[in-house]
Amino acid sequence: MKYNPNEIEAKWQKYWAENQTFAAKNNSEKPKHYVLDMFPYPSGAGLHVGHPLGYIASDVYSRFKRHQGFNVLHPMGYDSFGLPAEQYAIQTGQRPEDTTRVNIDGGVDKEGKQIAGYRKQLDKIGFSFDWAREVRTSNPDYYKHTQWIFIQLFNSWYCRKQGKAFDISELVTVFEESGNALVEAVCDDNVAIFTADEWKSYSDDQKEKILLQYRMTYLAETEVNWCPGLGTVLANDEIVNGVSERGGFPVIRKKMTQWSMRISAYAERLLQGLNDIDWSESIKESQRNWIGKSVGALVTFNVKNHDEVIEVFTTRPDTIFGVTFMTLAPEHDLVAKITTPEQKEAVEAYIEKTAKRSERERMADVKTISGVFTGAYAEHPFTKEAIPVWIGDYVLAGYGTGAVMAVPCGDERDYAFANFFKGQNGMHEIKNIFANVDISEAAYGSKDNVEITASDFLNGLNYKDATAKAIYKLEEIGQGKGKTNYRLRDAVFSRQRYWGEPFPVYYVNGLPKMIETQHLPIILPEVEKYLPTEDGLPPLGNAAVWAWDTKQNKVVATDLVDNVSIFPLELNTMPGWAGSSWYWMRYMDAHNENEFASKEALAYWENVDLYIGGSEHATGHLLYSRFWNKFLKDKGFAPTEEPFKKLINQGMILGTSAFIYILRENNKIYVIPQSLYQKISDEAKASFNSKEYTDPENIDWNNVLELLSKGEMNSQFVQPIHVDVSLVNSSNELNIEKFQNHPLYIEFANAEFILDENGKYIVGREVEKMSKSKYNVVTPDDICAEYGADTLRLYEMFLGPLEQAKPWNTAGISGVFGFLKKLWRLYFDDNGLIVNNDEPTKDNLKSLHKTIKKVGEDIENFSFNTSVSQFMICVNELSSQNCHSRAILEPLAILVSPYAPHIAEELWAQLGHTTSISEVAFPAFEAKHLVETNKEYPVSFNGKMRFTIELPLDLTAAQIEEIVMKDERTQKQLDGRTPNKVIIVPGKIINLVG
User: Domain total for the chain?
Assistant: First the structure.
């Protein structure tokens, strides 16, 4: 009976689906365990073998936990809104909902492309997902609840005093009773103070404008990353080197009215919560840096000849007397107000130039020094000295106050800026306020061993004492106060896109109103074009039916807007992270029509016990998810403060790309070997002069560099070309015939190949990211078809530690496939089942229990690669022991089950069981089977080992000596002699001397 993985796997995948084997219960006597993967964005490209790595790891763990008696929730869904689907729709004229559906379910798209479909690909790998709970963020029955959460945020405010969010109605009550003077809230800057009587005298619109300054989600003019080419705002992580990650379009900084989320209100809780979760230190540190807590002072500088003031946050108020100049962000509101006529042209030119650089680019570029003097001066709060005000792109409007008090003697960047502009109008000489410190070559940025000088009342003080006194004096004169600041900014929540969650918002007199929750969802309308309108409105501006009728409570035709009972709806959509910021809760109760999840389901599952996903989400997704979870906890919905107890970042599986090297010579193309390509310098990747070299066989290939350096050849580029890895065998040999007939490489159909001494062309190899554009993609479908899903699962786990990047090498697959066939042969021969009821031997039990111990510990420690090694050792040992005992092979099938579930189910069924192996108890480890009872002693004569003898460990030295002396091998060595001395150390050595 042969091992047939395709037949076995199809059988058990059908069984699991029909029997809902992995359906989790929302109430169980078993302890719960929630295992979650970061859900995928379903692109038409489908899965390659790198994508399932984390899913396989989480599946092994989920199956293991079921064996341990847990009620396991292991769901899967799709993060199906986003820019890629919209861009594809624009390019191909297809509806994003259609392409998204085909990408998930499979089929043929409008362009005739056959799409495998994520769901079918995932099913082939045999995951134990509870598919009954599948979610798709682009489905109205899902985003209905995203809209509901948005409304909760709009109707909430954050109380600093109590450190949590409350309903906005409670704030209104406070305003009605006592105004806002004593309210400790996270709100907009510079909120005007009013009394209760003044509040009551305001119109409804005035009250709404004030409340917008307090709401957890609010409308405000914000600096954003605007991408004209895509017609939308981009998040920082969607920009690479100043251009959009998708399409490579330029990105500029621009002010726009946007919806924002007050994530900054939760900065301290987000920071402190990191102490309570089991995440890697590197991920925690990324979040700490993004939150960016700093303690210092907020200092107010008056602007000379203006009514304006510049507020600066500094962590070094002790250096207040060392201020040499000030720098504002080019986008700062004050720049236009304080710039002098003489400096206006230079300032405006600089601002225009800066707008083309992303914030990330500006933050990362520490080498370029640039700035412009505004012509204005601020006034030092103590000395009243005039301080020149500059603008510079190293200062960002959204960080701190968008202004810096520059102390060059104590800060390297300020020092470099001051030196760069030294001698120019508007740049004073650097002041040194540190006693006994030389700043002629560099700034002194340390807080240690500081003694302040040239600083009036701070003279002679150290950093700590000077800081405290400076804050006290600033507060005394009303020009500063102690403050804790965070780098974390409120998150922009608007996107000028079509394919995203519609806001449940309409506008009356320009002010936002929420649609009542019983009328949700507000469904994305049909549009003819997914591009912005001709007058620059977002794509929803093209919708013919996109207005809110407040009498009928439904969406009606846009041209019916009368601003009496029918009003315009919001034209922006929510960002991609909206749906992914709460999806783990929806899995808890995926079909609840009335709530995002019931209180009972939330109370039972609480939060995610294990979360596995890529480290690229270290800040964005994880930070936003934690924020939404904390908010929902404040509002009484989420049961826990943190959403994810344990987080593991899987490494990337890299592709091994194949290259040929193209040398173009007029109308001739040569394919040269990698060895030659490596000899040609970067400056001299050139081809041959066709007049002198016409026949490749006559070319002196080793003379290339010399000829190039003499200028005797044309300087045409020698180009490495990616070759589809399917055209290369395991020996790196290119199939030239298939290559030249391949539609991708028609250009090279008549190319002349320079072959090696064996008449072969050996491709170059390079490990890089697996990508279709690099033609190094290996699909799981191909591996499953040829070797089976169990082989794929085992191999991916065997490649190396889960969290490390590792290259894919298809050549290694056959070894894992061979292991599964060897495992199969323990149970079957050509005639059928050969398992017997023989009593297991001591060695059988030892091999089994070593494996039970190792596999159990490895899975708990996520060391999956060493488990696979142990399986191979165990099967080799049992094979050599000729073991076919049921007492050994039944528990072995259970051990293998998390990793190779299909073959395990088949073995279990063939052994006579009628239920799935998936919830059979994990075998118990018994240490007694690993206790050594015998010892293989080396028997030495005069220090030289001549043979070994196995003896019980409980023998005395005298008993050992008696047995050894009677052994015929000893007698042969002694040849009638009597040894002078017999040295025996029980459990260690036997040595006969003389």
Answer: 4
